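I am still getting used to backbone structure tokens and would like to learn alongside you. Would you supply a protein for us yourself, any chain you care to pick? Start from the sequence, derive the backbone structure tokens from it, and show both lines together. Go ahead whenever you are ready, and we will take it from there.
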Amino acid sequence: MKIIRFIVLAMAIFWMHGCAKHTEKITPRKADKRVNINHSTIDISATANDSFEEEFAQEEMMATSDNFDPLEGYNRIMTKFNDKLYLNILDPLAKNYAYIVPEGVRVSLKRGFKNIQSPVSIANNLLQLKFKNAFDESHRFVVNTLFGLGGLFDPARSHLGLEPCEEDFGQTLGHYQVGDGIQIVLPFLGPSNLRDFVGEIVDGYVDPFNNLKVTNTNYKIANTTTETFLYQGGDIFNKASLHIGEYQMIKKDAIDLYPYLQDIYSQHRNQQIKE
């Protein structure tokens, strides 16, 4: 038995040695896959392999991230709810409202709502260390409040050339590389994500139209949840009257409405964060 084991061991060592020699012979041939560009030698084999592996890993990671949707069932139900709500209730009411109230008045109301919510933009510009933008937003707030009838008009823009620098806490988190998180469709508001949902809550402590309070501040306009709903709902309703027909135009190209709207929302938010 010892002799047989010795023979088997010897054959194994011989076979491994032969494989090593064979590998040594073919290694230079693989390494010779090079091109000379402007007198510089590039190993296209190694580059191609590394590039392929990196690209494959990135695609696999993105696919895994994109497919992670633990709230998909709820999100699809809420997307259908919002769709029916808009088409059957909000849109018809907004059309009648737009028919009765002149567009100039509705635009002024939109500016007024936005002016009152300026503290949100000012705070988030400061958090992102955009000090000039924070100063411009503060300047706009003072000028439009004093000389624009509480923000119904925009003399800061028309006379001083001060453009809006709107920011929210969701954008602030994105500015510091916080990812979207899971997808969430909010009732009445539509597509969102975990990052922006948290941002909405944080902004509520600063927004005068939200009754959330960190301390007993007196600048809050909304003092109850009902008032918050009325103010926020009025702003959304007024904005809807200025964008009649746009949702239908977007929806007609959707094969699957839920991911389609979510993708549009994500692209829009990413662009806002970059700006």
Observations:
- The two ends are 79 Å apart (CA to CA).
- The first strand starts at residue 34 and ends at 37.
